[in-house]
């Protein structure tokens, strides 16, 4: 119900206190993101990783702070619904001139639902849809940076313009040879554009904040020529002497989609008006949902809000049913999907058959570890939701029985609204991008025939990418635990991504061993393990029988990744990580790197 009048002074005070809480949150979030520039300049890679982890916790901390203040100062949870409706209207008024109104609305939802203690809340008291537009927001403060800068080079001044674009970020480090690197960028651009005529509107637009992640800084922008736009990203790295180099030139939507992938850690970028950054990035990557762009910028709560709105919209405009997801069923997770929707829903089961020895809390802690860790393009990001309501009529009966059998504690079927619509309420669920399970991808090739050129190519691509995925995870200090093909998936860009987290460990916590020499013939013939095995012991040479039963797969694996079966490979990486080394894992192919042209760039 819309309140007839705004007559509660308390409502304004509550709204103002809540807005103060949001402003504090975004100020801290932005400050931490801005400090990424100093950490990059000083090569503080461990500090960068630590800041990326800690920033994820900022939102929940500020929500708790704001909730406690509202309870302490205003007894907010005891106020009438009429007061709360007025609070919402006052908050809208306070959001009109805010530079982050969409984030402020999401913050309001989080604090309100926490105070009202409703696992299933009424939509009257939250922002189901945006109330304040994010279009054309500008910061008129003379000291404020614009969202993007525009440059207008001619053919003869292109390299100088690239140098100016980089210098405008005022990085304190010296470049090894910026003029040389700018020439590489221009050469790559000419190879991309060919003999295209430069139109009257030819320009390069560059977002005013550098994008920092791990050991890299990325200049992100787009080239506009006539009716055509070409996305652009320039990775800037330290070389072995501590000087800066432009490492590559990335062009086009596909390169940018991989750079901003859901399987990578969140960027740190200083944004005064985040919606303007999102709008700019969306113009370059129209296939990437706004929710995933917000996630990539570290604004995961906003991404979560937008994802759920997109999901509800999809439900309204589709008629297919949720079903048990195709593929081999997991021992820990019950997975279902909606065929028309490109995500899967994962529910932790209530019990796990041997040899699984874990608990619900341990599994949730593994997922949290992945959320906070560098995912290096090889671990899928997940959204975590509580008390999600689905229309019962959209659920396949077989799926309902599966939930009743394996996760009864997580299932409620009722008309909790009292509106006559029966719903399936899942108490805790993870949602992540749907991929083709790697075992299914390989089986498709086997079905064609392993000697067929297309099948051989598919097997080779899958096996090489699988091994590369594991090596990237190792570089990020992650041991997957369960390395079976079914726990990996293929993305639309052909990248292999890991998505089964209940057995992951830090590489530095594992003990990689060779299988001991058999003491006698009885040991050698024994079907049982005769040597002692500790809880964190790993024997890489035993991976083969589980992974390489198919001859074509085995041949390709041994050709490209035989080192994964050798304990020495794992031990050497473990030692370097323990010594403080941070590996480079690049979100682009080696062939794109200018180091091919410049032998002094970092290896």
UniProtKB/TrEMBL annotation:
Its EC number is 2.7.11.5, 3.1.3.-. It catalyses: L-seryl-[isocitrate dehydrogenase] + ATP = O-phospho-L-seryl-[isocitrate dehydrogenase] + ADP + H(+). Keywords: ATP-binding, Cytoplasm, Glyoxylate bypass, Hydrolase, Kinase, Nucleotide-binding, Protein phosphatase, Serine/threonine-protein kinase, Transferase, Tricarboxylic acid cycle. Residues 320-589 form the Isocitrate dehydrogenase kinase/phosphatase (AceK) kinase domain. One of its GO terms (biological process) is tricarboxylic acid cycle. It holds the Pfam family AceK_kinase. It is found in: Cytoplasm. GO terms for molecular function: [isocitrate dehydrogenase (NADP+)] kinase activity; AMP binding; ATP binding; phosphoprotein phosphatase activity; protein serine/threonine kinase activity. PANTHER family: ISOCITRATE DEHYDROGENASE KINASE_PHOSPHATASE, PTHR39559. NCBIfam families: PRK02946.1 (NF002804). Bifunctional enzyme which can phosphorylate or dephosphorylate isocitrate dehydrogenase (IDH) on a specific serine residue. This is a regulatory mechanism which enables bacteria to bypass the Krebs cycle via the glyoxylate shunt in response to the source of carbon. When bacteria are grown on glucose, IDH is fully active and unphosphorylated, but when grown on acetate or ethanol, the activity of IDH declines drastically concomitant with its phosphorylation. Belongs to the AceK family. This is Isocitrate dehydrogenase kinase/phosphatase. It comes from Polaromonas vacuolata.
